[in-house]
Write a structure and sequence with these properties.
The longest helix has about 30 residues, at about 50-80. By secondary structure, this protein is mainly α. The N and C termini lie far apart (about 50 Å). It has helices at about 5-20, 25-45, 50-80.
């Protein structure tokens, strides 16, 4: 499998996990899960020619997806409460 295709799959896995973490009710548990997800990014990145760069990219994907999903959850909750 090409590295580009592998990265797309790894990124999709990380983003799916970030969405699940965003729905965690307990903030402490969500923080633990985010830490585990970021460590997973490092494991996934280990197989690439520049693992540090790929790890940063995957962590950024995870963080942006988590942030966007949390915003969506808060927005939806606020709209339903209004």
């Amino acid at each position: 499998m090409s590295r580009t295709k592998q990265y797309i799959e790894d990124s999709a896995e990380v983003e799916e996990s970030a969405v699940l973490v965003a729905h965690t009710e307990d903030h402490r548990e969500a923080l633990r899960e985010l830490g585990a997800l970021f460590r997973r990014c490092g494991v996934l990145a280990a197989g690439y020619a520049d693992p540090e760069l790929v790890a940063r990219m995957l962590v950024q994907d995870a963080a942006e997806t988590y942030r966007a999903e949390r915003w969506l959850i808060r927005s939806t909750t606020a709209a339903l409460a209004a």
